[in-house]
Amino acid sequence: MSSPRGEPLLGCHVSASGGLHRAFERGGSLGCTAIQLFTRNQRRWYAPPLVPVEADRFRAASREHPAIRMVLAHGSYLLNLAADPREREEISRRSAETLLDELNRCAALEIPYLIVHPGAHGGQGEHRGVENALSRINEVLRRFEGATVLLVETTAGQGTGIGHRFEHIRDIIAGAGAESVGACVDTCHIFSAGYDVRTRRQYRRTIREFDRLVGIDRLKALHLNDSRGALGSRLDRHAHIGRGEIGIRGFSHFMVDERMASIPKILETPKRTDGRDMDRENLELLRRLAGVKR
């Protein structure tokens, strides 16, 4: 299905099973104008090298699906950039090496953004966790020669995770350099972290706070997920759009805000419920909120 240029950059995380190029087929079947994928197994440290033929197929698939105007990659869940190298040297080293590999894969695939969670401080304190994450990121960026921009994702703040305060994102971006690093806001995560977006007034207050601390110009991607956890619960549990604690009204604010118009919006909600294709249903609901008719 072709996608009019007036449509928002909207899509979901899609499987790359069977080859990275297959992500375009799956995204295209849902009418996505943006997709997100993993470029390697996200639950293993080792990944075979990206071979040139695979990169060629991926770039060819991109040309064959012009309706998909934005592709983003999500980093491995194993990464813990905030780990203290003095206490957890191996996890810190592996996180840096894996992040560099993922950036190089994105560069070869011509993917402009790689989204990562900043990690957990493991009892060392939030300030130390932010310093560790920044140190690992700068170490990797000094070795990376591509153009892919790293996006640090907001988190719910479970356990000792950092990234649940906008100040954490601000400090990492400021320390790494605005051209190299940006931000990805996850609606479930910020809501669970205590940032309310349910009413227009609450939404404006939250976005104003993000702009003051981080800057709207550094916001390069949105993850649109409702939250099973209550406001401030610090519970990272995604729900279908309008079926969680945020509710449909909260998502309408993101879909009609002109400042968010050019920012890719990606679903990370459960794929199927009672045998139904929930990606398709969630996408249709978000399109209606944006006033898009198909």
Q: Could you outline the blueprint of secondary structure elements for this entry?
A:
Layout: E1 10-13, H1 22-29, E2 34-37, H2 52-64, E3 70-74, H3 89-109, E4 113-116, H4 126-143, E5 149-153, H5 166-176, E6 181-186, H6 187-192, H7 200-213, E7 219-224, E8 226-227, E9 238-239, H8 247-256, E10 265-267, E11 272-273, E12 276-277, H9 278-289
Parallel strand pairs: 1-2, 1-10, 2-3, 3-4, 4-5, 5-6, 6-7, 7-10
Antiparallel strand pairs: 8-9, 11-12
Helix pairs in contact: 3-4, 4-5
Specify the CATH architecture: Alpha-Beta Barrel
In what range is the share of β-strand residues?
15-25%
What is the number of helices? Answer: 9
Q: Which percent range fits the helix content? A: 25-40%
The CATH topology assignment is TIM Barrel
Could you state the order of secondary-structure elements as H and E? EHEHEHEHEHEHHEEEHEEEH
The CATH homologous superfamily: Divalent-metal-dependent TIM barrel enzymes
- Segments where pLDDT lies below 50 for 5+ residues? 1-5
> What is the CATH class?
Alpha Beta
- Mean pLDDT across the residues is 95
- Shape designation: globular
- Strand order within the widest beta sheet: 1-2-3-4-5-6-7-10
Q: Between the first and last Cα atoms, what is the distance in angstroms? A: 10 Å
Structurally, the number of domains stands at: 1
- Structural class comes to alpha/beta
Number of strands: 12
Biggest sheet statistics:
8 strands, parallel, barrel
Verbal overview:
- There is one protein chain.
- 38% of the residues lie in helices and 15% in strands.
- It is α/β, with parallel strands linked by helices.
- Strand 3 (70-74), helix 3 (89-109) and strand 4 form a beta-alpha-beta unit.
- The chain is built from 9 helices and 12 strands.
- Helix 3 packs across helix 4 (126-143) and helix 4 (126-143) packs parallel to helix 5 (166-176).
- The chain is globular and about 55 Å long.
- The chain has an 8-stranded parallel β-barrel with strand order 1-2-3-4-5-6-7-10, surrounded by 4 helices. A two-stranded antiparallel ribbon has the order 8-9.
